[in-house]
Design the sequence.
């Protein structure tokens, strides 16, 4: 039973990695539908989705101010893991400040994301033989988060002449999850927003 | 010049604040400044107490997601004279998360006396067991204070899917083997043996083990109400404290080998 669980876990992990790799290298596939080819690659430090995470992103909407990212992150044992985390992230950039022709600032970008922790300690559904319905109301594997980020986007044509990189962004992102949020709401004055919002930094390359 | 220094200090504060906010995952087992081995450290502190003839301690439980009431509890206990230590009897956290145990420890660090953390079912959720073991210590442990042996143990059978190994009766029996310097026993755990979350297959032998010795009481939390019962018709009280969410706890005293308790509302 234990080894079966491990195998399922391994397959899940491999699947996620291969989908990501497929998406990242998707550019080479001529027959691959254009819309599925990711337009950005992301590397993020911390931010509750891994010590390091990497992913592929898609711009959303006509103005490309939205993005949808698929990340895979890990936390090594020396940093409080081992943990393996997949996440799907959405964010929108309502405000744009142009910096001549070399860059743009997006100062306040609200977003939301889901993170999923792999492993037998983390349950998507609580075991029905072990717990009555509603014994624990949350999922320990799946975490919904809300986020707010800021981003400095540099023009790749200016930065890397003749390269395929269109843009290079650096961003910082604060997020909290629903479990921290209920803790905060139930203890107004006892916990501060700085207690429940957690930080991460990232780099985004646009192609 | 002065404004520059102020600016610099503001930035430094902000950066430190930000570094404190770095999180790799809510389920990470530790971060840069997570405390370690709290029970060991607090028991060392307790052992430095000057001897007197009264043992007075607090039994509180279920601090889970109750940060304001936990702070009030700490203030209340700090105003009670002669308290030797506090037992925080499980469900320290609600979701088994590092951040919760850190918040709770920050609050309980405000106590003027040591506190001892005991494992609860909620503390075993997700990575909670690993977080607890690193931050507090073993799930089963004991300490002797002024001739009384406090046997703290894991009774969260449901979290082990009632596998017959929680509570660990072999370990428990070893704790009651006669030894020098021990005149009496107090058992401490989260789930009481008459609760549905306790492994029913083990409850008879469990109670027999505890009641077969000079045990003054068995202490529990979990049920979020005050309760006292005497299993097998013997005169050993099994005492459940109310939860921090109801702003109640038990104040317990052992004088001349006799244990007395009363419920306190704050």
Sequence:
């Amino acid at each position: 039973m234990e080894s079966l669980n491990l195998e399922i876990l391994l397959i899940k992990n491999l699947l996620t990695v291969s989908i990501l790799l497929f998406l990242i290298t998707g550019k080479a596939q001529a027959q691959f539908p254009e819309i599925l080819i990711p337009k950005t690659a992301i590397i993020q430090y911390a931010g509750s989705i891994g010590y390091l995470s990497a992913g592929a992103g898609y711009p959303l909407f006509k103005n490309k101010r939205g993005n949808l990212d698929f990340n895979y992150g890990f936390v090594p044992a020396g940093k409080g893991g081992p943990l393996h985390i997949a996440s799907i992230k959405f964010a929108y950039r309502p405000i744009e400040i142009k910096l001549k022709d070399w860059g743009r600032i997006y100062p306040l970008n609200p977003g939301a994301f889901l993170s999923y922790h792999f492993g037998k300690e983390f349950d998507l559904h609580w075991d029905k033989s072990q717990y009555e319905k509603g014994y624990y109301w949350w999922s320990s594997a799946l975490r919904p988060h809300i986020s707010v980020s800021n981003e400095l986007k540099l023009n790749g044509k200016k930065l890397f002449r003749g390269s395929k990189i269109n843009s290079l962004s650096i961003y910082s992102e604060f997020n909290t999850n629903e479990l921290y949020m209920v803790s905060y709401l139930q203890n107004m004055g006892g916990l501060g927003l700085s207690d429940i919002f957690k930080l991460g930094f990232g780099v985004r390359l646009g192609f | 010049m002065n404004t520059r220094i102020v600016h610099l200090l503001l930035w430094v504060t902000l950066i430190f604040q930000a570094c404190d906010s770095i999180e790799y995952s809510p389920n990470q087992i530790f971060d840069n400044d997570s405390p370690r081995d709290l029970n060991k450290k607090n028991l060392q502190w307790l052992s430095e107490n000057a001897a007197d003839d009264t043992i007075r301690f607090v039994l509180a439980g279920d601090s889970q997601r109750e940060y304001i009431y936990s702070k009030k509890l700490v203030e209340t206990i700090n105003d009670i004279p002669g308290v030797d230590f506090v037992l925080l009897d499980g469900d320290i956290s609600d979701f088994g998360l590092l951040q919760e145990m850190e918040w709770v420890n920050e609050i309980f660090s405000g106590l003027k006396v040591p506190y001892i953390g005991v494992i609860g079912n909620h503390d075993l959720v997700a990575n909670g067991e690993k977080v607890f073991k690193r931050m507090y210590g073993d799930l089963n442990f004991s300490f002797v204070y002024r001739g009384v042996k406090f046997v703290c143990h894991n009774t969260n059978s449901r979290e082990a899917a009632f596998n017959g190994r929680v509570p660990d009766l072999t370990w428990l029996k070893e704790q009651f083997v006669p030894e020098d310097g021990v005149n009496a026993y107090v058992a401490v755990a989260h789930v009481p043996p008459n609760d549905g979350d306790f492994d029913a297959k083990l409850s008879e032998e469990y109670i027999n083990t505890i009641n077969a010795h000079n045990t003054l009481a068995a202490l529990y939390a979990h049920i979020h109400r005050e309760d006292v019962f005497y299993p097998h018709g013997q005169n050993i009280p099994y005492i459940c404290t109310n939860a921090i969410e109801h702003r109640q706890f038990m104040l317990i005293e052992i004088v001349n080998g006799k244990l007395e308790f009363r419920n306190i509302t704050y």
Observations:
- Chain B is about 30% helix and 20% strand.
